[in-house]
Structures are given as C-alpha cells and as structure tokens.
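TODO from last week: model NUBP2 factor.
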Amino acid sequence: LAERSNLAGVRHILLVLSGKGGVGKSTISTELALALRSAGKRVGILDVDLCGPSIPRMLRVQDSAVHQCDSGWVPVFVGQDKAIALMSIGFLLERPDDAVVWRGPKKNALIKQFVTDVAWGDLDFLIVDTPPGTSDEHISTVEALRPYQLLGAILVTTPQ
C-alpha cells in the first residue's frame, strides 16, 4: 500500500490548529520545526493551509519547485543542511501569491494526496500546519492521518 510506505518512516505527527486566523499557526509550525532541527531531529512540515500557504515564504524557499519520484512528490528541502522537508500548495501554484479558490471536494482530494503521495522518507516529526477555523480541511486531514500514529495537536490561541 503506497500510503503506508510514504508515512512509514515518520515517527510522530503533530497538528498545529486554531479556531481563528492570524494567531500565528504558521509561525509556531516554522519555529517548532527549526527548534526540533536544532535538537538534531529530522523534521517535515506539511502546509495544508491551501488558501494562505505562508511557510514557503517564511523559510525563504517560495521559488522552489516540487518534483516527482517513483513514490510520489519529493518535498522541498530547506536550509544549507537540507534538514527540513516541506510540502505546500505554494510550490504548485504558477505564482506564489495566486489565490486558491476551490470547493471542498477538490481541497479534500489535495489534502489526501499530500498525506499519501509525498515521499517524506525518515522523519522524527511531521508538523502539519492547518488553515484557520474548523473546516472540511481539518476533518480531511485528521481522517487521512488516522491510520498513522498521531503524536497530538498544538492549539494556538490568543488572549481575547
């Protein structure tokens, strides 16, 4: 089963969520990945914020391209040491600032494809940056990841 093999080398999966936008989910995801990498861990980030994919810009790889291999998409590797693997819809758009205006089924299909068709290799942590709110994308992501060991979730909140 292809989906088994692409996440088989991932030891822990961590979702970063919030009930609203603009609270810093992508910043937390990026900083967490950088901290884990500094601690010697192998890290991947899956950016499922389809309408606002900001992580490629945060990690200064927004001009990178995703390539195909036998087991699916090869994520973009970040930094001189190539220690963070990143997959984002931002790499699949013609221009990084293009808007994605899709309905649920198409978004859900891409999320499932991101989960099953990205060749992550061996990772200690896969951090999943989600869009704001509690939408179809969250349900699709959790359902697609259900067969794998989910470490848990970080819920990002603000004082208000």
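Done. The radius of gyration is 14 Å.
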